[in-house]
Amino acid sequence: MSIAAGPFTLSDNLEYDTLRELVSKFTRDKPDVVVLMGPFVPESHPHIKDGLSDLAPDDIFKYKVVPLLESLREGLHSHARIALIPSAEDFCLPLACYPQPVPDKMSQIFLGVPQSVEFWPNPAKVVINGTSFVFNNVDSLLHVGSEEIA
């Protein structure tokens, strides 16, 4: 199993170079399960906040992230699972609150998510080969640290 958490793009562009490198690594290593935890299109990205992108957030996901997901699917074994877990920071998903359900099928189709890629809720509990895993895509330490009194 390989797990990675976003954001998957650098702060000076929306080219998804880090996600591209991860896809390359995953296709070399060929894990049976890949879990990608958002944000995929972070609302806090400077290009989005400042209106510097020519693409809408949905289109950024469609034209930048989806081709990399398709490349990942092609590079893994046919039995491998690819799962996406949303983040409250995602600007391209319909519900930016916590907890987050799986985006409905129409949203997934609209975003161009390949059918072979699963969405899991945030938080998610899944059983893989008899082992339970729990995923929580919230930076709890950030929230705790912001309440700390020095």
Concise structural overview:
The chain has 5 helices and 6 strands; from the N terminus they run βαβααβαβββα.
What does this structure look like?
This protein is α/β, with parallel strands linked by helices. It contains 5 helices and 6 strands; from the N terminus they run βαβααβαβββα. A 4-stranded parallel beta sheet has the order 1-2-3-4, with helices on one face. It has a two-stranded antiparallel sheet with strand order 5-6. β3 (81-85), α4 and β4 form a beta-alpha-beta unit. The chain is globular, with a radius of gyration of 16 Å. Keywords: DNA-directed DNA polymerase, Nucleotidyltransferase, Transferase. This is DNA-directed DNA polymerase alpha subunit pol12. It comes from Spiromyces aspiralis.
Helix/strand layout:
Layout lengths: L1 E4 L11 H13 L3 E5 L8 H4 L7 H19 L5 E5 L19 H7 L5 E3 L4 E5 L2 E5 L4 H7 L4
Shape: globular
Strand order of the largest sheet: 1-2-3-4
Which H/E pattern describes the elements? Answer: EHEHHEHEEEH
Unreliable spans: none
Rounded average pLDDT: 91
Share in β-strands: 15-25%
According to DSSP, the number of beta strands is 6
> What is the rounded Rg?
16 Å
Tell me the span between the first and last alpha carbons.
Answer: 39 Å
Decide which structural class fits the backbone: alpha/beta
Please bin the fraction of helical residues. Answer: 25-40%
Q: Sketch the major β-sheet.
A: 4 strands, parallel
Counting H and I runs of at least 4 residues, what is the number of helices?
5
Keywords: DNA-directed DNA polymerase, Nucleotidyltransferase, Transferase
Protein name: DNA-directed DNA polymerase alpha subunit pol12
Organism: Spiromyces aspiralis
